[in-house]
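re: the backbone from monday

yeah here it is again, tokenized this time
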């Protein structure tokens, strides 16, 4: 389809066409490792499924369309996608990263890649000066999460992208929390966008997959080489499930945002809640930035009960019935997590607390259930 589609239509049709073999409307699951050749080196574009697979290609075209990009690359997980980006660098190169970020990303940076000679600076990116003080001729990558996990900080994507271009530095954005429904960082000048498609894109808590999207030809060539050589690719069933999920992304995200706002307001007004982290509040320190670069404020939020003590938080976590205590986020069902012992447990306690991730913090991934059921569940758990 050559026509430029609006986002809601692109989730369904973007980069897609009926299968050439039998006209299948949904891309088939090409569950094969290899492909027939008529003579050595002559085939129909596919020779081995680590390198390419038609179901994976359909997914890569889909995410490229949604992010307004030239290229999409699919990986076995979000961490495999991040691993590929970091392999663009050389020993001695430096990275400037968001300080409040997913614990798995922190672990990959500090426990794996620091051992190979990369130097990482973790900074609060809400102020550009915090970034510029670490920029030097060795800086090769600026790694952004926005909104951040789990404190929901929002950073100015356009400003940091301009900073990266001025210093010939790659700027990459983990767009998992927002999804392309809420923001499209390539349109704001960054070089690479990452998604843990396990979350909102697939949307049903039934697959694990990562995606990169980008426009630069040279970067795409390098990352595709790493993708094929390292082999951290998803199987066709995972690609199919993610494609199926993407087709309802716009519908699900609208409800995630509506429910997220209602839950955030309920918690903010509750006398037993001390603090709520959600960028939709006018008094959120980055509210104006969020309003400018996001289409809405999403379904993720965190909060701390009064007293800031772990016992109160644990009591709430144990009493919730509709919210499920589990890792991950972005599925149709509402999930609740305890960052200090779950998603961010790999970050040393002193570092966590310095960045504001206290033991009492609770993170919510607000699903698409009836919002009254969610509020009532929180109400009975908080007491």
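seq for it, each position gets an aa:
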């Amino acid at each position: 389809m050559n026509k430029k589609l609006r986002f809601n239509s692109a989730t369904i049709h973007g980069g897609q066409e009926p299968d050439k073999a039998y006209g299948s409307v949904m891309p088939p699951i090409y569950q094969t490792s290899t492909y027939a050749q008529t003579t050595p080196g002559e085939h129909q574009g596919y020779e081995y499924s680590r390198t390419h697979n038609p179901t994976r290609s359909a997914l890569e075209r889909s995410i490229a369309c949604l992010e307004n990009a030239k290229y999409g690359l699919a990986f076995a997980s979000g961490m495999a996608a991040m691993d590929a980006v970091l392999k663009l660098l050389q020993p001695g190169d430096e990275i400037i990263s968001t300080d409040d970020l997913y614990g798995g990303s922190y672990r990959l940076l500090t426990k794996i890649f620091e051992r190979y000679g990369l130097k990482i600076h973790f900074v609060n990116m809400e102020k550009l000066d915090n970034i510029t003080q670490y920029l030097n001729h060795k800086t090769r990558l600026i790694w952004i999460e926005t909104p951040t996990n789990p404190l929901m900080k929002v950073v100015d994507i356009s400003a940091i992208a301009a900073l990266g271009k001025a210093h010939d530095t790659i700027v990459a954005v983990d767009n998992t929390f927002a999804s392309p429904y809420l923001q499209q960082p390539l349109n704001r000048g960054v070089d690479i966008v990452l998604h843990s498609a396990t979350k909102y894109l697939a949307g049903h808590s039934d697959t694990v997959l990562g995606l990169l999207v980008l426009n630069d030809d040279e970067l795409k060539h390098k990352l595709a080489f790493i993708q094929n050589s390292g082999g951290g690719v998803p199987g066709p069933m995972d690609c199919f499930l993610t494609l199926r999920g993407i087709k309802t992304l716009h519908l699900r995200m609208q409800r995630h945002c509506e429910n997220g706002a209602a839950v955030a307001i309920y918690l903010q007004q509750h006398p037993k809640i001390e603090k709520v982290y959600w960028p939709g509040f006018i008094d959120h320190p980055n509210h104006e930035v969020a309003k400018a670069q996001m289409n809405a404020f999403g379904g993720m939020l965190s909060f701390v009960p009064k007293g800031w003590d772990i016992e109160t938080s644990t009591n709430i976590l144990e009493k919730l019935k509709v919210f499920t205590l589990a890792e991950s986020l972005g599925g149709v069902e509402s999930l609740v997590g305890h960052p200090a012992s779950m998603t961010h447990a790999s970050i040393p306690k002193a570092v966590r607390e310095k960045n504001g991730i206290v033991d009492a913090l609770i993170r919510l991934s607000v699903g698409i259930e009836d919002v009254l059921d969610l509020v009532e569940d929180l109400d009975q758990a908080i007491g």
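The chain has two domains: 7-246, 249-382. The CA atoms of residues 6 and 135 lie 38 Å apart.
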